[in-house]
Amino acid sequence: MEDKGISRAVITRLPRYYRYLGDLKHEGVERISSQELSRIMHVTASQIRQDFNNFGGFGQQGYGYNTNYLHQEIGKILGLDKDHYMILIGAGNLGQAIIKYMHFKKRGFYFKGAFDIDPSLHGTMVDTVMIYPMDQIAPFVKEHGIDMAVLTVPKAAAKETAELLYDTGIKAIWNFAHVDLETPPHIEVENVHLYDSIMKLSYNLHKNG
User: How far is residue 87's CA from residue 112's CA, in Å, rounded to a whole number?
Assistant: First the structure.
């Protein structure tokens, strides 16, 4: 998408549009205007129209957007019309909580296996997902067509763990380790810092206190 000149800010807003439109579908709303969507999402109507125009517009002047169609088309842009097969590396508390999060399956994201260095975890299950030794990652990825890896390992192990994935066929890494990973061009990475989010909340609490 970015090859077509679409900004990171627009791409970042797409999941939020998808989520709100999903809620509107569930509520039985069949059509919605940019002004109505603006009031719900607290994004200007002009910004919404500009964002959607990056992908062809989706609407009809004076008629608004078909909620189901728009939700479906944004889902396609986000790649949600395809199933994604994932592995988790680091089966501690955070990793196990992520595996158990039910909405991943509803959106087409399926955990096929988990990996950990702790021998006592090998052969045990988290929900319906088996935990394997680390040395089985490469053959497992190949056998099961895995395209995404979720890292919930300690910061000190993140870089080395990511490097293990580079030649396995993994196409994307969702990184929860407390360090930004720089990956080769053929691998997408999303670095998630939970502390950053709560520190922003702390700042606003302090500022407004």
Answer: 6
Q: Residue 162 region, left (φ>0) first, then alpha (ψ -120 to 50), else beta? A: alpha
Q: For 170-209, what is each residue's pLDDT tens digit?
A: 999 999 998 999 999 999 999 998 888 899 889 888 887 6
Distance CA 21, CA 71 (A): 6
Identify the sign of the CA torsion 142, 82, 11, 200. negative
Domains of the chain, with CATH numbers? 2-77 (1.10.10.10), 84-196 (3.40.50.720)
Look up residue 100 and give its amino acid: K
Name residues whose C-beta falls within 8 Å of residue 21's C-beta, 6 or more positions apart in sequence.
67, 70, 71, 74
Q: What is the pLDDT of residues 32-57, one digit of tens each?
A: 999 999 999 999 999 999 999 888 87
Distance CA 151, CA 95 (A): 8
Which amino acid appears at position 86 of this protein? M
40 contacts: CB under 8 Å, gap ≥ 6: 20, 24
d(CA 23, CA 7): 26
